[in-house]
Write a structure and sequence with these properties.
The protein has one helix spanning about 1-20, and strands at about 25-40, 45-50, 55-60, 70-75, 80-85, 90-95, 120-125, 135-140. By secondary structure, it is mainly β. The termini are far apart.
Length: about 140
């Protein structure tokens, strides 16, 4: 009888641990935010205009994954929303022009690199309960 009890206990423990849901799809929470674009001249010395970041790719990384789990585009008003998420940690990112030469030197007369690589702008978000609607706020990018 003790042997059966131990087998059932161990099986229950394994099932409980293996069924733990981590960050990702399959829940009933969502993350919403907005993209805002600032358009500068080629050497980032003058702001030309600002507008909602329409049709911008927004990526989401689930938990401690190394690559993105999903990608959506922002709407015409810059708003985006990832739906059906579980409790956990998430990292959002979008790509922006590199205004300070982190990846490569910024544009100058000596370095007319108008096609300099873009950098990722990150935003960490936490969903702590079921049916939660988390506002990621505004993510600002340069164009």
């Amino acid at each position: 009888m003790k042997k059966i009890f131990y087998i059932i206990s161990i099986t229950s423990a394994i099932v409980t641990v293996s069924c733990k849901k981590t960050a990702g799809e399959g829940g009933n929470s969502n993350i919403q935010g907005k993209i805002h674009t600032k358009n500068y001249n080629s050497n980032f010395s003058a702001l030309l205009n600002e507008y909602p970041g329409a049709d911008v790719d927004v990526y989401i990384i689930y938990g401690d994954e190394v690559s993105y789990g999903d990608k959506i585009k922002s709407g015409p008003d810059g708003v985006f929303e990832f739906q059906y998420l579980r409790k956990g940690s998430y990292k959002l990112y979008v790509y922006s022009k590199d205004s300070v030469g982190t990846v490569s030197p910024p544009y100058s007369v000596l370095n007319p690199n108008l096609n300099a690589p873009k950098i990722a702008v990150f935003k960490n978000v936490e969903i702590s309960k079921k049916k939660e609607k988390v506002d990621a706020g505004t993510i600002e990018i340069f164009n």
